[in-house]
């Protein structure tokens, strides 16, 4: 591909209108990031005064097309076929490119998940256009420029970079889960569902899915509804077992601050914050975590935050809805015992 120089006048993109969101699903269940992106996509679409378009691909996934409308989409392209049950780059990217080619959205958004990154990368390469990966802030310049302002941390997370795609359409971005807020699910919303044919034979798909092996205990912090996170206040790796017991009793997962991760007490996959995951669970416990801004930026969108800290002046108490001042080694076991009793 020969990139156009920024000094060249931008081509006329006036036939590209609308915001597109890819609704990622597995086994008929949508990833939460899809609804979050529809929420953010709607905000951008309203600013540009255009429609919000969604794409759902899979087998027996019509219910997700309806859900996409409830979460803000005006029009949903739906491609269903048994051979589309599991994600494969070639058929999924071909279908998405066909829809993008027909609908001509000016902005295309994907979750920054393994699948979303793969799909968005394949589409951007083929179209060809620019793709900003792992964005954490999105906005648009008002008409006439209508440019997508896609921001993401850069230079070892020390700066925010805002990336523009002036010379190509659509403008594409993947976005981190948990950063944007889904709209309230509104079952009275009406929208259009447009069926799209797959049009690709099994032989043309290049790869075959022979089996799907569920990884053992794969941590999914971004999708978790309850997170019990621990920090340097735990003093070592062993107390994380105590946090796991509380998380198990509540049906949640364990998170951590960077201090705990950097100390080697727990793996990076558990880290919440600027250089970890951004989460929006229903319930977040911050245990022995001081509340540095780099941590709170990743969890302040949680519905209910409970902080346990022995320092009554700890900054985490400014973010928390419930504040427990005291020694975590006394409070956490007592809490776990009460939860277990209630659940028994
Ligand atoms: P501390 O700040 O040391 O806090 C420990 C807390 O435990 C204290 O408040 C203390 O009162 C309490 N405590 C101690 N003992 C007990 C006890 N027995 N009972 C109850 N409470 C107790 N941090 C992140 O978390 N996530 C990130 O993604 C992240 N990214 C960063 C990116 C950059 C570029 C930089 C510069 C920093 C980043 N940080 C991140 C680090 C962040 O600035 C803080 O250093 C870190 O969050 C502190 O972790 P902590 O709260 O566990 O430790």
UniProtKB/TrEMBL annotation:
Cofactor(s) required for function per UniProt: FAD
GO BP term, example: fatty acid beta-oxidation using acyl-CoA dehydrogenase
Cofactor note: Binds 1 FAD per dimer.
Domain of life: Bacteria
Cross-referenced InterPro entries: DHS-like_NAD/FAD-binding_dom (IPR029035), ETF_a/b_N (IPR014730), ETF_a/FixB (IPR001308), ETF_alpha_N (IPR033947), ETF_asu_C (IPR014731), Rossmann-like_a/b/a_fold (IPR014729)
Pfam family, one: ETF_alpha
Keywords from the named record: FAD, Flavoprotein
Entry binding sites for FAD: 232, 257-258, 271-275, 288-295, 309
Domain spans labelled Electron transfer flavoprotein alpha/beta-subunit N-terminal: 19-209
Family under the similarity heading: Belongs to the ETF alpha-subunit/FixB family.
The protein, known as: Electron transfer flavoprotein subunit alpha
Species whose genome carries this gene: Paenibacillus validus
């Amino acid at each position: 591909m020969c990139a156009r120089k920024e000094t060249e006048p931008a081509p006329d993109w006036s036939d590209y209108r609308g915001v597109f969101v890819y609704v990622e699903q597995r086994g008929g269940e949508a990833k939460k990031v899809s609804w979050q992106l529809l929420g953010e996509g709607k905000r951008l679409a309203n600013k540009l005064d255009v429609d919000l378009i969604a794409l759902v691909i899979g087998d027996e996934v019509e219910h997700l097309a309806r859900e996409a409308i409830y979460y803000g989409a005006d029009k949903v392209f739906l491609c269903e076929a048994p051979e589309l049950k599991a994600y494969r780059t070639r058929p999924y990217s071909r279908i998405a490119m066909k829809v993008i080619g027909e609908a001509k959205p000016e902005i295309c958004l994907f979750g920054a998940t393994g699948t979303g990154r793969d799909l968005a990368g394949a589409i951007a390469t083929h179209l060809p256009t620019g793709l900003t990966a792992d964005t954490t802030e999105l906005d648009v310049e008002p008409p006439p420029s209508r440019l997508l302002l896609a921001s993401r941390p850069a230079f070892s997370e020390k700066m925010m970079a805002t990336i523009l795609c002036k010379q190509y359409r659509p403008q594409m971005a993947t976005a981190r889960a948990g950063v944007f807020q889904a709209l309230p699910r509104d079952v009275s919303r009406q929208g259009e569902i447009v069926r799209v044919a797959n049009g690709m034979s099994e032989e043309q798909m290049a790869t075959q899915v022979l089996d799907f092996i569920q990884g053992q205990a794969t941590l999914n912090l971004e999708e978790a509804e309850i997170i019990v996170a621990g920090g340097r206040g735990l003093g070592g790796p062993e107390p994380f077992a105590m946090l796991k017991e509380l998380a198990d009793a509540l049906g949640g997962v364990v998170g951590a601050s960077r201090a705990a991760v950097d100390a080697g007490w727990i793996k990076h996959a558990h880290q919440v914050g600027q250089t970890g995951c951004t989460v929006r669970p229903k319930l977040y416990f911050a245990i022995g975590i001081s509340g540095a801004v780099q941590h709170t930026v990743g969890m302040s969108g949680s519905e209910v935050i409970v902080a346990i800290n022995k320092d009554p002046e700890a900054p985490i108490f400014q973010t928390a809805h419930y504040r427990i001042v005291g020694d975590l080694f006394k409070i956490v076991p007592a809490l776990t015992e009460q939860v277990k009793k209630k659940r028994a």
